[in-house]
Amino acid sequence: MAWSPKRDLIALANRAGEVLLHRLANFQRVWSLPPNENTGKEVTALAWRPDGKILAFGLADTKRIILCDVEKPESLHSFSVELSITYMHWMEVTEESSVLTSFYNAEDESNLLLPKLPALPKNYSTTAKIFSEEKSDEIMKLLGDVRLNALVLGGSSGFIEIYAYGMFKIATVNGVAGSCRGLCLSSDLKSLSVITEIQNSSDSEAEITYFQLDTSLLSSYLPEVTRMARKFTHISTLLQYIKLSLTCMCEAWEEILMQMDSRLTKFVQEKNTTTSVQDEFMQLLLWGKASLELQALLMNQLTVKGLKKLGQSIESSYSSIQKLVISHLQSGSEALLYHLSELKGMALWKQKYESLGLDASGIDEAITAVGSFILKANELLQVIDSSMKNFKAFFRWLYVAMLRMSEDHVLPELNKMTQKDITFVADFLTEHFNEAPELYNRKGKYFNVERVGQYLKDEDDDLVSPPNTEGNQWFNFLKDSTHLKESPLLFPYYPEKSLHFVKRQMEGVIDQCIQKPADVIGKSVHQAVCVSLYKVSQSEDSTSQLFKLPFLWNDKTSNLHYVLFTMLENSISKIHILRRHTDTSRSVSNGILAVEFGNFLNNSINESSDSSCLDAHFYDDETVTVVLKESVQQEGKERVLAQLPLSSVYVDEDQDRKSIWDSMERLDERSGEIPTRTVFLESQWRVLENMKAQYVSVNGIRKVSCVLSSNLRHIRVFEMDVEDDGEVEEEEEEEATQIAAGEPDEPNQPADGQDDVCDASAEELPDETEEHETSLDP
Fold this sequence. Notes:
This protein folds into three domains: 2-107 and 139-216, YVTN repeat-like/Quinoprotein amine dehydrogenase (Methylamine Dehydrogenase, Chain H, 7 Propeller); 226-458 and 506-519, no CATH class; 547-719, no CATH class. 33% of the residues lie in helices and 24% in strands. It is α+β, with helices and mostly antiparallel strands and 778 residues long. Strands 17-18-19-20-24 form a five-stranded mixed sheet, with no helix packed on it. A four-stranded antiparallel sheet has the order 1-2-3-4, with no helix packed on it. It is found in: Nucleus. Pathway: Protein modification; protein ubiquitination.
């Protein structure tokens, strides 16, 4: 569960692999995104971008991160990671400086200097939705606000990566052991707190450990990191635009265009004469006579109607591809060149950008790769141009020849054919109608009449029919010039390769160029503190790690990291609060406290209760929301939702200064040394009747909390700061329950409904809750 930071929306992920978005009012569903082959089925982490416009979720089975639009269940951007993600945190930088303010307020120069990218035609596949005519502003939505925000990913085997704007990797962090259970990057970018679960061997108990990492390089070079990240985010978006343009081009090319090749190959295999196909067509051109076999091929297999259709398909397909190359591919490539050239200028300012790993030589290689891609796109345009002329003349002649064979009337305007036209068709036949046995071994066909499709094939093979460069004066000049051959001013040209191949090569070079800053910044991150907290007993249930404590929080105003976790003491699960300053050099406020609660339901107010803490989340910088389990006799009244003000915990500032940072012992082995504070809450709690509440997700900005039952099938939503005639602060708004198997419109959910987060709305009376719980059991 994850509340939107800006709206009354909560995102839920269930075990069927669905991501669901619900509105607070009546718990109404806004949309659902079922699992599919492009995303995956096992959602392990959720995070909202700080502006609330994009939801990110991580998938364990496909190792992908999806950025999804809040308005519609559509993927705006996705990328793969090396290991499966177990936790995500998306933060916004709140630091201010005059340099940053001027950068934030300045208009992006690329908008002034570059023409607006043309929207992709919406009649192609769903992959192009992000840049389609209806969504031309989506690219800006994906880029978001100029103020730097960072998506921090934590996974198994100590995997941690930081992505600026959720798209560009600015750090690959090493040196942390175990599987990530929680992480939090401070808003001043000075430190990263991580909680991991370290399993030394399969039969030993896992150890929960807290790390504080020093990320001061990011905070020291914040304006430079922001500018660099913004540039790379533009580049990532443009690469996606080029990829989608190429996808549209592949869809515009039709399989029908291969008909001529396959029919001619079949003709070669079936004919009895030794005359070549080229000679057969030449005889028809020069003498107007065709062999019986050629007549059968033309009249029975190709047919006049089929020829017309083929001609129309070629014309419409080629002109569509031509438009996409000119308007989309070229404008996207030019914008890419612009941003890479700006990035090169930044890299040459070594005083500012060298420490961040920005390398001018790597960017030069990227610029060269984009240049090669533009050359290949231009080559495709020339091939389309000549193919359209050739096919037009060839089909016009063949159409008339076939009409004569069928003794149909030939219109006078079609009958005119000059000597120039005949020479043109003869040249076309000579060049395209040669039988090639080696081609049959490679592609299973003897001919390659259609020359455009080979450029759009996503394969490593060389082109079947590369362009003929013989006699090209520029090529001869380059060959003879020793100075120009290796010149960095000339983009390399790959005449044997397809457009797809050159595009993949370009993406690889740009990725390499982007990767270096992530490695350099990652290596600068070092461990400041490592504290072993406690051991996890193997008897614990295997509920998703999404919910479980520990929980991390960053207080932006006082620059403090807080860790909430529970440890067993005399069979009671006490909540512990550990806090550290984000500036690793400062020891102020660093320490740990244990909290126990006064009785809620008994009259004897001065006794400490046997309340066990089940879950805890920071509601805001001053308050923690907790779910407690009371040891009471009354059935259905053992769960309590409470608000714990930090002011009641941190009364004496020196109380938690116990030095725990230098010792090698685990905290649970030193629990007796940890100072404990007993807190008595007067009105800031509420009994959760008839609900086995286990987990809570809160949003202090919207003043709401969402409580989830232990079986993951019941949800109650509370408005937290409602005061009604002096009654308790928490006011239940509604409860939502769903029987997963009972909803016919949800085919993706498991039949028994066991594993689903509830997601449909239903008003229930409190005394009906238990009834519903039992009815859900299979």
